[in-house]
Every structure is written in C-alpha cells, then in structure tokens.
Amino acid sequence: MPPSPKPQISPVQCPRCVARPGRGASAPVGQDALEHASQALMALAEARRAIVETHKELSIVQGQIGLGAITMGGASGAKPPAQAVHAERIRMRALRIAS
C-alpha cells in the first residue's frame, strides 16, 4: 500500500505553522495567541448563530401579535388597509389557537 500523502496546511489556515519551521522556532511559540484567535472566532460564530435564531423567533412573534401584514419602513411607507390588518389578526389568532 502506498504511503498516504502528508496533510498540507495553507498559510491562510495557520501562518504560524507554515512560517515556524523555516525560522527555527519551537512548536509552542505563538500557541497562546493561536488559541485566543480560535476562541474569538468561535465566539463570533456563536454570536451570529444566536442573532439568526433570534431573528427567526422574532419573525414568529411578529405574526403572533398581528404585525404580519404591516410593512416596517418599506419604500412606500403606506400602511395596509385596516380591513386587511383585521383579517390578518383573525387569521393569526386562529393559527395560534390551532397550535
């Protein structure tokens, strides 16, 4: 069986890993900085995930409180007719009761 190829690390993935051997630095050099950068990136991803989930939940609440047919600062800025808003509220109440 032929030997498996050695995994390659790109400079974008880990510039310290690529530059270290050519400079004679040991593996632990810069490890703390790399770990902090990784933690920060993970925290940013988690914050974005939380914002997306909040947006989804607020979208549901918007319909539950009867704002589904109301524009929030659209180009025209015109509100829907009162009859349409009333009909939407009745529809949303029915959905809420059914669930």
How do the strands and helices of this protein lay out in sequence?
Blueprint: H1 15-23, H2 31-64, H3 82-98
Question: Please, could you describe this protein's structure?
Answer:
With 99 residues, the chain is mainly α. The chain has one domain (15-98). Helix content is 61%, strand content 0%. The protein contains three helices and no strands. It is elongated and about 75 Å long. The termini are far apart. The mean pLDDT is 75.
> How much strand?
under 5%
Specify the helix fraction band: 55-70%
Q: What's the SSE pattern?
A: HHH
Mean pLDDT: 75
CA(first)-CA(last) distance: 60 Å
Query: How many helices does DSSP assign?
Result: 3
**Main beta sheet, described?**
none
Q: Which regions contain 5 or more consecutive residues with pLDDT less than 50?
A: none
Q: Shape from CA axes?
A: elongated
Question: What's the total number of strands?
Answer: 0
Whole-number tally of structural domains: 1
Q: What structural class do helix, strand and pairing data support?
A: mainly alpha
Computed CA radius of gyration, to the nearest angstrom: 27 Å
Key traits:
mainly alpha; 99 residues; elongated
In short:
The protein has 99 residues and is mainly α.
